[in-house]
Amino acid sequence: MSEISTKVYAVLAREILDSRGDPTIETLVVLESGYRGVASVPAGTSLGKYESVELRDKDPKRYGGMGVLKAVAFVNGEIAAKLKGMEALNQGAIDKMLIDLDGTPDKHRLGANSILSVSLAVAAAAANARRLPLYQHINDLFQPFIATKMSRIPTPTFNVINGGKHGAGNLDFQEFHIVPASNKSYSEALEIGVAIYNSVKQILKYRNAVYSVGYEGGFAPNLFTNLDALEILAEGIKSSPYTFGVDVFFGLDLAANSFMHERGGYQIKDKPGTLTSPDFIRYLTELHKKYRLLILEDPLSEDDWEHWALLSKEIGHEVLVVGDDLLATNPDRLKRAIKEGVCSGILAKPNQIGSLSEFFAVIAIAKEAGIRTIVSHRSGETNDSFVADLAVGVQSDYVKFGAPARGERVAKYNRLLQIESEIIPKK
Question: Of 385, 319, 374, nearest to 352 (Cα)?
Fold first, then answer.
């Protein structure tokens, strides 16, 4: 068999819809051999100000200004011209070309969505040309950053109740999670997540509460306080075959930026008035004592570095304190966080940084420092399951794909089931 060419022959982007009905970009990369890869880019609803910039058309007459025809045009024009003839197996060179072509620190010229769609599609095409599963190709690309053996499927953390910007607006905290114990196999963890998800649905129905779902497939009930949501989760676990603190734990994504008062301090329905950062840390400490949280994501605002460090000192030895908006999958912010001891985990989202190689670099920094990694979806998702292969390829500790419901979430969970059957030996 003659050697096949893995040079890029053509690039074609188009506008598609995400799970919220907003436009996003999908890119096809075709190699000279005919092998091809397709990737689409998700988008967030709750955006941190330190994320790379996604390019939107801002034409109010079309999709409420959310169109991505400018991003599509950049891929089909400038980027395609530069990419044609480049070696798809050299991911680093392609990503560097994309970053240099944009020429801005936050990718606002071409858009992180344009750049990432190409970066991911190139990796998918290269994996197909090598006739390897995508996760294996990703793992091979990741080795120069930090030697990593694929031996497990990351533990899923399920968003069962949606609040904040993802829900009905009556809960301050954005996500209420259940997290299966990490000693469970992935398929066991998925079964736990589905059982408790359905148990919570029955409880909401019994209480005549709303059980429609939010952006990420979790329920968006008409509850009155954040503690109400935690009590519903606790009740859901009790009425399932599983034991809290043994089989399953609680996680919270507060997305604290969203209830930060414009003059400082935090305002939540559970407490009267505005809480100072020290007051809010005391509240979170009491919350942990009562509910024994395993994961606490974005508990404070993205610029409150001093109090992040204080919170981590208070409960960081018991709780995984995770930075999302704080870190924005940014290497410089992560290095500062490590130096100042402000968190013990990072939520890693490819579209926050904008290319595969930069994402690898951030994960490697975290792993070298003993920071736990959670590879995450976004609220505006597509059916593309690339992020599932990515999480396995870099061996993240956890994955965050939303509830075990809605097609765009289930696509990722089902992909992990498939990967588990391929890499984990049958007992």
Answer: 374
Residues involved in catalysis:
216, 349
Q: How many CA atoms lie within 13 A of 121 on its CB side?
A: 30
For β-strands 248-253 and 293-297, DSSP reports them as parallel
Where do the H-state alpha helices sit in 54-175? 69-74, 80-83, 91-102, 112-129, 134-142
The CATH class of 8-131 is alpha beta
Q: Is CATH 3.20.20.120 the right assignment for the domain spanning 155-423?
A: yes
Write out the two tokens for 262. 């414009």
Over the stretch 144-177, which tens digit does the pLDDT of each residue have? 999 999 999 999 999 999 987 655 567 899 999 9
Minimal CA–CA distance to 343: which of 407, 401, 300? 300
Domain residues of the chain, as ranges? 8-131, 155-423
| pLDDT at 169 (0 to 100) | 64
378 contacts: CB under 8 Å, gap ≥ 6: 42, 43, 44, 45, 349, 351
